Amino acid sequence: MTTIAPPTGGPIVRRPRSKPHTSTRFVITGVAILGVLAVAAIAAPLIAPHGPETVEVSRVLGAPNLQHPFGSDVLGRDVLSRVLYGLRTSLLVSLTAVTVATVIAVPFGLAAGYFGGRVDTAISRTLDMILVLPAMLLAITFIAILGPGSAVAALAIAVIYLPILARVMRSSTLVITRNEYVLGARARGAGHLRVLVHHVAPNALGPVIVQASVLSAFALQLEAGLSFLGLGTQPPTPSLGGMLADGRDVLIQAPWVEIFPGIAIVIAVLSFTLIGEGLRRSFDPRGVAE
User: Fold this and answer.
1) Is 14 helix (H, G, I), strand (E, B) or coil?
2) Residues 36, 88, 242, 276: is their CA dihedral positive or negative?
3) How confident is the model at residue 288 (pLDDT cuts 50, 70, 90)?
4) Whole-number Å distance between alpha carbons of 141 and 215
5) Does the pLDDT at position 263 exceed 90?
6) What proportion of the chain, given as a percentage, has pLDDT over 70?
7) Of the candidates 274, 163, 177, 178, which has an alpha carbon nearest to the alpha carbon of residue 208?
8) Which of 118, 125, 129, 267 is most buried, by CB atoms within 10 Å?
């Protein structure tokens, strides 16, 4: 407890100390879960008990057993093997999309917040045109023009999240540019590029990193949704969303075909959410009630 004595001589107020390690626990837990999923996805060729496209006619809609821990699907393919390979595809698409969006959004948001005026207006109004469109509609439009596939899905998701990340970077830059160390750097004759690279960008990236972590969870869900509709990753490449689509017609007869891909999506989304929440608490501990 922290003791605070009021200047008027009133009663002593005891303010509870915040828990400094709560955010760290969130991040560590999220990173640990995501790390396990990533290792499992990368090592899928080594740890998958069967090939993701290996068909066993005798095992059509087979229940889970020792040889097939997650059961078999409508074609007799091993669900566990397909979940591992599908997890690889979903993580690759979502992380690639968010990374591309972040790399493009940071300089745009930095320029808009730092220079303001016409530069801000031109960048912000252009990005607002993308932001007003529904995410799924924009993704479907991209896929209708360029064709379905995981690469196109990643590009569509990157375009969807580009204005969100750019606006976060712009807002953070507006706050940072008012600080005294930025004004002091300008007073000492530092050029715009030096001020941006050495003073503004490093201190403005925190909220963008948090937002990127949160958007990774939404990107994975969006990729699964596109694959579920047949617009994302195309067969024969396994995808979690595609597996959900395959299992919807046999949900009552063979629920394991639908349950295990869904659990994989939930766990992956949870890991990204924990990381984002932990980072948010780290960057803004005053806004979190412990």
Assistant:
1) strand
2) positive
3) very low
4) 20
5) yes
6) 90
7) 163
8) 267
Helix (H) or strand (E) holding 59: none
| Overall average pLDDT of the 99-127 stretch | 91
Beta strands in the chain, from DSSP E residues, in sequence order:
2-4, 13-15
| Residue whose C-alpha is closest to residue 220's, from 84, 105, 88 | 88
Rounded to whole angstroms, how far apart are CA atoms 77 and 103? 39
Q: CB 130: neighbour CB atoms within 10 A? A: 15
Which residue ranges make up each domain of the chain?
A: 22-52+69-284
The model's pTM is: 0.83
Q: Which of helix, strand or coil describes residue 13? A: strand
DSSP-derived 3-state class of residue 150: helix
Q: Give the C-alpha separation, 163 to 126, whole Å.
A: 9
Q: Is-cis flag, bond preceding 285, omega within 30?
A: no
In whole angstroms, what is the distance from residue 73 CA to residue 256 CA?
8
Structure confidence by residue, pLDDT tens digits, 227-261: 998 888 888 888 999 899 988 888 888 899 999 99
More confident residue, 104 or 237: 104
Distances (CA, A) of 285 to 28, 91, 168, 278: 17, 29, 18, 10
Tokens of residue 172, six digits: 């953070």
**Alpha carbon of 275 to those of 23, 169, 175, 217, 228: distances in Å?**
9, 19, 24, 10, 26
What is the C-alpha to C-alpha distance for residues 70 and 257, in angstroms, rounded to an integer? Answer: 8
- pLDDT for position 4: 52
Check if CATH label 1.10.3720.10 holds for domain 22-52+69-284.
Answer: yes
